[in-house]
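>> Question from a student workshop board

For tomorrow's exercise we were told to take the sequence and the ligand below, predict the bound structure, and bring the output to class. My setup keeps failing. Could a helper post the expected result so I can at least see what it should look like? The ligand is iron/sulfur cluster.
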Amino acid sequence: MKILVSACLLGLNTRYDGKNLKNITVIEYLQKNNIVFYPLCAEQLGGLPTPREPSEIENGLSSKDILKGKGKVVSKSGKNVTNNFINGAYLVLDFCKRFGITHAILQDDSPSCGFRKISDGTFTHNKIKGVGILTQLLKDNGIVIIDNLL
Ligand code: SF4
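>> Workshop helper replied:
Here is what the output should look like for this input. Compare the format with yours to find the bug.
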């Protein structure tokens, strides 16, 4: 099994705030099971800088809507970063297809990688049930999200 992993979970400083969310449980799981893994960050691959402003999917919309071209992803100051998010997600998907990656371990609560919850688009730290744009695209293409480690 080959696994895509959100880069920030492995200690890479790819988050919008220039920090990471290194997760020992994930690292030990990968090491103990001798898994081939690939750390990637869809937002960086989409051309966004690090650090960067936080961004959220517009209030009332889902990642499915964004992937269908309905609505926007906006940064806190109101910049439209939709194309960065979509392009980054498709680059990650392309990488997964090329390298035969079948599973993913992702960082929750992210407009790209969230798999249980995302922010509600109001930049008030309010969370709603939902998945990020990368997560939606991976699921739509048959990649299994490993969601029991986090
Ligand atoms: S896009 Fe994903 S990998 Fe990149 S910093 Fe956000 S949660 Fe981590």
